[in-house]
Predict the structure of (2Fe-2S)-binding protein.
Amino acid sequence: MSLALTTPPTDAPPRRTLGDVYRRLTDLCEVLSVRVAEPGEEAGQAGVTAAELASEPAVLEAFVDAEAARIQDRYTVAARRDAAASRALHDYAWSVALLMSGPWYLERRVPRIRAEELRLDLDSAVFTLTPGTDFACLPDDADAGLPDALTVPHEEALRAELRKVVADHMAPLLAAIGPLVRRGPRALWGMVSDDLVSGIWYLGRILGREGDAVRAATALLPSSVAPYPGGADFRYLTTPDGQRHPTRTRAGCCMYYTIRPDEACSTCPRTCDAERLRRLEG
């Protein structure tokens, strides 16, 4: 492959780095606790890498301990060990999935986040992401010719890449944490499915494009696609004013109901449609 792109002509569009879209994403999503490392910055020393979480049992135990401490501090509840592990996994999966699905939704680019590129400060629950250079894109992307770009022929191929990179990143952690959450592979991948879908849904809402995000998430997971056990499965509820609101029922449980029994998530199987409508009306 030619390296001429390293010195583009003056009229060529400027190269968009993955760091640029990550910063746009974190600016948009206030609840995404991620710091994007600057170019040339050494990887932060604080925290643990995603690789360490998946390969070192003591680090994984500390990951769960830190979540249990946050639950105790925030809710004054001593969480069950499996519930603390589930909550920690849910936050991790939602954040990591959105870091890869966000660039796909915003710019039709799918980055691959390697385990060594992501660190988590256990005390603050803040991630530090050192942007890599590997990404998949469509042929009309301005940077499709870069050495680390994987050009795929169409939108469905790009969706397949997104499903793959999220699964590749999450698989080692799911294998390691399964005994702590006390659930099998189907339930664990159900949680990842939920977090992948809900991150896109959330991003669409904050952009004022909820309907578009629902369609995008449905195209990404129209049904069960291995290893994801179920599709986006959106449906609609109608409030008395005639407005239709998308909702779905989670395939995997984040265990929040064990901490606040009267405040189960709006997409929890325990939350009936009447309660969902009451919250929408409120």
